[in-house]
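To: structure desk
From: M.T.
Subject: fold request, one chain
Message: Could you run this one when you get a chance? Sequence is below, nothing fancy, just the single chain.
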Amino acid sequence: MTAQQRREQLLSVGKTLFASRGYEAVTVEEIAAAAEVSKPVVYEHFGGKEGLYAVIVDREMQTLVKKITESFTGDNPRLLLEQAGMALFDYIEGESDGFRILVRDSPVPTGSFASLIVEVADHVEHLLAGQFKARGFNAKLAPMYSQMLVGMVALTGQWWLDARKPDKDDVVAHLVNLAYNGLSHLEHRPQLRGPSAG
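Reply: Done. Structure tokens follow.
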């Protein structure tokens, strides 16, 4: 194998092991054994388990963010929600190991599911701000609403990763139904109405 081929092999082996068992449970010895190399080869390419994990997390985050942001076409808010939802669920279906790694707490400062949500929400925020402004809502609230929407979709994806029922089209349709119909009936000045409301 060339150095690049070996590197890719280690990334593939590491991704499978981390997805199935988690970062803490996997050892450099196991990675080396699964790749049929010696431990020094893993250290040579990545400096150790942490470096290998960091590259995998970074790649997966880039892949998912790219899929979601490239799915946005046009400016119809309902269609944008559908596109983002389908992009996420297509990723979960096609790259389950990658998504499993992303939704676990990351022990290294390369990123985590929370930082992924923030990154995707930043992209959604600009789209929401335009829609808020066009409908007479305070565009300064778009960052908060984008976090809410992306968080709702991402946590549903986390649940569906193992449930796999109903099928992804139905799940996305229900997500869009809740999010879009909720957005389309927003109050301009919402207030709590329960007994604990101040």
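Reply (cont.): The chain has nine helices and no strands. Let me know if you need anything else for the meeting.
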